Amino acid sequence: MQKRTLETRARLVAVATALVAENGYGALRTDEVVKRAGVAKGTFFSHFKDKDALMDLLIGAGIDAHLDQLAKAPPPETVEELVALQAPLLHFMTQERYVFDVILRLSGAAAVAEIGAIATTFGRYLDLTVPWFEKGTFRNDISAELQADGMQAFVTQAMALHFCALHEDQSMGARLAVYLRAWLCPGG
Amino acid sequence: MQKRTLETRARLVAVATALVAENGYGALRTDEVVKRAGVAKGTFFSHFKDKDALMDLLIGAGIDAHLDQLAKAPPPETVEELVALQAPLLHFMTQERYVFDVILRLSGAAAVAEIGAIATTFGRYLDLTVPWFEKGTFRNDISAELQADGMQAFVTQAMALHFCALHEDQSMGARLAVYLRAWLCPGG
DNA sequence: TCCAATAATTGACTGCGGTCATTTAATTGG
DNA sequence: CCAATTAAATGACCGCAGTCAATTATTGGA
Asked: Which nucleotide's C1' is closest to B41 (Cα)?
């Protein structure tokens, strides 16, 4: 791989980042990226398989930054702390309908060979939250892995309902709290 | 509304249904629909807001047919029955990656005014499954609505992981069974 | 230093969803 | 039965992602 390659790629990413900062993710156009970066259309697609691959990189980086914060914090002891701790991450992932759609689309790796940034963050989310459940603060009848896995399902559900007009009465955090209480503190 | 309108619309839907039967949902092209239906491109879009609106109709009808089956069956008494009963529906929704993506995208109504067929089926799914939990066969510490809502979250999670290469070891049904046991039979 | 061989870049082109001013057909009232 | 009005249909056109044969730059060996 040539030095030139890295430079071009870095310029594309830098330009894309700037454009996203200006107009948001959904408004990004590959034409505008290549124009500002001073390269041809084809160059973009020799660096990224498709537009989704660039989005995967940008959004994945955003999620990762939020996971860094989660990693720093002490393990939450209550459902309320669990919800509060994850609020910034949920807000980031639902900032735009387009962003949430991309995340859903790319969160599962289609093939082992093509695990992207977002799919990686979903793995990291589990690695990071499993220890929260290993101390036995919540349930003891099921594994910490399953508790974390289920939390992920409810986080996704809460975010999905956030975009649903029929469920606008409740906030995302309040909805998640209800789910997690039922999931992590059954009978209590 | 004129009779002609209904005829044209019916022809578009019939052609689209036939094309889907031939090549699947993801391969459907609006150009081919209008060509076979013998109408102009613009006619398609005066009948459907966009391609998603047609897909909403076609896929929504498919889901509805499966819900009809669920409605006929007696309320399941065990997690195994719960999983077995829903297996055909899950299989339908995951028959193609494209179909699952469309369902996720359209399952939440963006506005109360634009509740489509798929969003309606998601409401119907809840209406239909809530009674399963009202007899107290499963949990009694949380409402039947919440039990049904949670089941929906886990069904979605199980389907999403179905497309994830990292989780191919387990079948969708097996995965769902694990989730539902933990969700509906805590401590048992 | 020069010459293949390889890697990177180019931009005209394609596919496909979606738009809109214009034309054509149906409907209604006199 | 014939305007006048409203509804439906038309197709050339646009935006934007993605392709690929041709071109240009880089590199490693003789």
From this structure: D11
Taking the stretch 14-53 of protein chain B, residues with Cβ within 7 Å of any atom in nucleic acid chain D are: 38-43, 45-47
Which of A115, A157, A165 comes nearest B111 by C-beta? Answer: A165
Q: What is the CATH number of domain A1-48?
A: 1.10.10.60
Closest-approach residue (CA) in chain A for B162: A108
pLDDT at A164: 92
pLDDT of A119 > 80? The answer is yes
Residues of chain B whose C-beta is under 8 A from some C-beta in A? 97, 101, 104-105, 107-112, 115, 119, 123, 139, 141-142, 146, 149-150, 152-154, 156-157, 160-161, 163-167, 178-179, 182-183, 186-187
pLDDT at A97: 97
Phi and psi angles of residue B73, each rounded to the nearest 5 degrees, phi first: -70, 150
> What's residue A112's pLDDT?
81
B168, pLDDT greater than 80: no
pLDDT at A111: 78
> Please, what's the b/e burial string for A42-76 (b: 16 or more CB within 10 A of its CB; e: otherwise)?
ebbeebbeebeebbbbbbbebbeebbeebeeeeeb
Pair A25, A99: CB distance under 8 Å: yes
Q: Looking only at Cα atoms, what is the longest distance across chain B?
A: 61
Task: State mean pLDDT over B25-46.
Answer: 98
| Model pLDDT for residues B175-186, shown as the tens digit of each residue | 999 999 999 999
Q: Does the pLDDT of residue B137 top 90, yes or no?
A: yes
Q: CA of B2 vs C1' of D4, distance in Å? A: 19
**B36: distance to nearest CA of chain A, Å?**
31
From B110, B141, B163, residue closest to A108, measured CB to CB: B163
The gap from C-alpha B131 to its chain's centroid, in whole angstroms, comes to 20
Whether residue A12 contacts residue A44, with contact meaning beta carbons closer than 8 Å, is answered with: yes
CATH superfamily of A59-184: Tetracycline Repressor, domain 2 (1.10.357.10)
**CATH among 3.40.50.300, 1.10.357.10, 2.160.10.10, 1.20.120.140 for B51-184:** 1.10.357.10
